[in-house]
Design brief:
Blueprint lengths: L3 H10 L1 H16 L2 H20 L3 E7 L6 E3 L9 E7 L7 H14 L5 E8 L5 H16 L3 E5 L3 H9 L2 H5 L4 E2 L2 H12 L2 H6 L8 H5 L30
Parallel strand pairs: 3-4, 4-5, 5-6
Antiparallel strand pairs: 1-2, 1-3
Helix pairs in contact: 1-2, 2-3, 4-5
């Protein structure tokens, strides 16, 4: 029995659903019904794995008026910290893709010493994800910065604890809000020389930091990190 309403709902849902529907239908015309069902099921599984193995990763910055996090426009990016929103799972099927993306960002920005990963939409996280984030954290520490997180749900946070990732990155690097994580990174590893030379004002704190007023981050706060920008050493800054 054909249910037209179910077919209509499938067609309007996603391209993957449409592909599975069409292939399954054509298979029933060319193959036995049992084999056609297997083909449709295997195709659905394959399409699902293809989607989950490529989570969406993009840079965000705070809107200076609303203070909400928005996709960063070309060029408007802090050269000391990238704030990434990850939409999807970080597991064995996607770890290679995520690792390549993060490494590309680090290679493209020699002064980039901090990453803040917004984990609000990361629901699945396994040992492969732990391993790749440990490597990224180690790379950032070698640059004088660190790896930070915000919006980690209870399930993923438990993996952080059980795998010892929480201890390795530091308790102070996991935050409920993105803004809290940003300010923590500023206090711990922002370099005043780089802030003073930066042409952008990405955060509301930028004007004060450019003037050397680090107490905008809290009473008694002083810069902890002093390093010569990579540009001054012959490095080249490029945009993603």
């Amino acid at each position: 029995m054909i249910r037209v309403e179910d077919i209509r709902r499938t067609v309007l849902a996603t391209r993957n659903d449409v592909a599975a529907l069409v292939v399954t239908f054509l298979s029933t015309l060319l193959l036995s019904i049992e084999f056609a069902i297997y083909v449709g099921a295997l195709l659905s599984i394959g399409l699902h794995l293809a989607t989950t193995s490529h989570p969406r990763i993009y840079s965000t910055v705070p809107d200076l008026i609303s203070r909400k996090m928005v996709g960063s426009s070309y060029g408007r990016m802090c050269c000391q910290m990238d704030i990434l929103r990850v939409e999807g799972s970080i597991f064995f099927g996607s770890s290679a893709y995520v690792s390549e993306d993060l490494q590309r960002r680090l290679n493209s920005h020699p002064n980039l010493s901090n990453l803040l990963i917004r984990m609000h939409q990361v629901n699945n996280f396994d040992a492969s994800g732990v391993q790749l984030l440990e490597l990224i954290a180690e790379e950032l520490r070698s640059r004088g910065g660190g790896l930070y997180f915000s919006g980690v749900n209870t399930r993923v946070f438990q993996v952080f604890k059980n795998s010892d990732l929480l201890r390795k990155v530091g308790d102070s690097h996991v935050h409920t809000s993105t803004r809290s994580g940003i300010r923590q990174a500023m206090r711990e590893s922002f370099c005043p020389f780089i802030c003073a030379a930066c042409e952008y004002s990405v955060f509301i704190e930028c004007p004060e930091l450019k003037k050397g007023n680090w107490e905008t981050l809290g009473k008694g706060v002083r810069p902890r990190c002093m390093r010569v920008p990579a540009d001054a050493q012959g490095g080249k800054r490029s945009a993603l």
